[in-house]
UniProtKB/TrEMBL annotation, chains A, B:
Domain of life: Bacteria
Organism in which the protein naturally occurs: Nocardioides kribbensis
Coiled coil: none
Lineage, broadest ranks: Bacteria, Bacillati, Actinomycetota, Actinomycetes, Propionibacteriales
Gene3D superfamilies: Homeodomain-like, Tetracycline Repressor, domain 2
Protein's recorded name: TetR family transcriptional regulator
UniProt-listed InterPro entries: Homeodomain-like_sf (IPR009057), HTH_TetR (IPR001647), HTH_transcr_repressor_FabR (IPR050692)
Entry keyword Transmembrane helix: no
Keywords, alphabetical: DNA-binding
DNA bind region: 33-52
Amino acid sequence: MTETRGERKERTRRAILDAALALLEESSLVALSLRQVSKQVGIVPTGFYRHFDSIEDLGMALVDESFESLRAMLRDVRQGREGGAPGWMDIVDDSIGILDEHVHRQRSHFAFIARERTAGPPLVREAIRHEIELCERELATDLARLPGTDRWSTEDLRVLSGLIVTAMVAFAENTLHAVGRPGAEKLVVENARTQLRMVLVGALNWTSRP
Amino acid sequence: MTETRGERKERTRRAILDAALALLEESSLVALSLRQVSKQVGIVPTGFYRHFDSIEDLGMALVDESFESLRAMLRDVRQGREGGAPGWMDIVDDSIGILDEHVHRQRSHFAFIARERTAGPPLVREAIRHEIELCERELATDLARLPGTDRWSTEDLRVLSGLIVTAMVAFAENTLHAVGRPGAEKLVVENARTQLRMVLVGALNWTSRP
DNA sequence: AGTTTGGGTGAACGATTGTTCACTCAAAGT
DNA sequence: ACTTTGAGTGAACAATCGTTCACCCAAACT
């Protein structure tokens, strides 16, 4: 059983991405060297260039990959909601549960996003910012579909989405920081649950300005 | 007019801190080299060790300094509130205005915190996390002093404070990202204002679980 | 007046960095 | 069967990195 050329290339490309993700759990892209990655993969430094132009280029690929998995999660959240119309608070509990599970399963992806969102090279930062803004938009249209949002201006829906996304980003960060401390983990989840409920109580009592 | 020994030392120490803050506006501590800082200050690399043990040590000093200025700001926020009892929404407007002004005046400090909070060396990250947690506690006791928080458990007050602080951190980050784009700046402020109002509407309609 | 202290200097070290170039050699294309 | 392609190699480069050491000299102390 021999390996086709493209297969082999894709395999080392994956190895590079995985090696980078592993190294980036404890440091940042701006401090990551091409040679560290090569060594971890088991190839010679120059081999790196066959797959990426630079560390920043690698970072852009990781942004794509990370948000691909994040979008898969968001599909899960929506899917868990369709069929039947559970109460607001059930939506909160389910969504946070799913997010929590995904953060654990894709730990390195979320850790990457959390770090490079503020510390990465400018292009990477901008790409992450853009992706998060897309998430906000999608959440806004989702919220618009729910009953009880009649009195909301589209502008206020966007602002509310921003608030929720901000809280969820913070929740993901806190979850990452709490892994391995089981007590702290439960606390972080409960914290996020209550916060989202508070926001929702605010939302349900909100009336957009004329 | 000669300079006393301690004065001279303090002057170069400040120069190092300032040089680091300037360099850290576009990069991160983990990518900052001792030699860059020395060159920017105008001293030889070894001179650095007369003031700090390492870059991480410098980072800890910057954490102290940054949160000292942040605490000064929080005093302003409280002071602007005492005397007279303006409405909730006035408190929101005033607080955000003050925060906005301070982010501009201490841009490099806030940029430092925003970056190293997630990307800095472990000790620096932990120090920043601790300081922010202190801010949450202080906000919680402040909120407890306000009228209308009778039906709130102290636990829920803490959770609410966490939500507000999270939103304010995000606001500061957005403000930093918007500097130089006057339109965007006004939008960011208006965004934060509305979000805080939403949270407050939620808070005013909240009843802690029995 | 004589001695100590300590901020700043400058050379030197071994290690690591990104990038170049000329190479191999097996898979893919002819 | 013969040629081309391209992933991976290995040597070499000029820079930069953190850290060491011995040194200077003016302020501070005795």
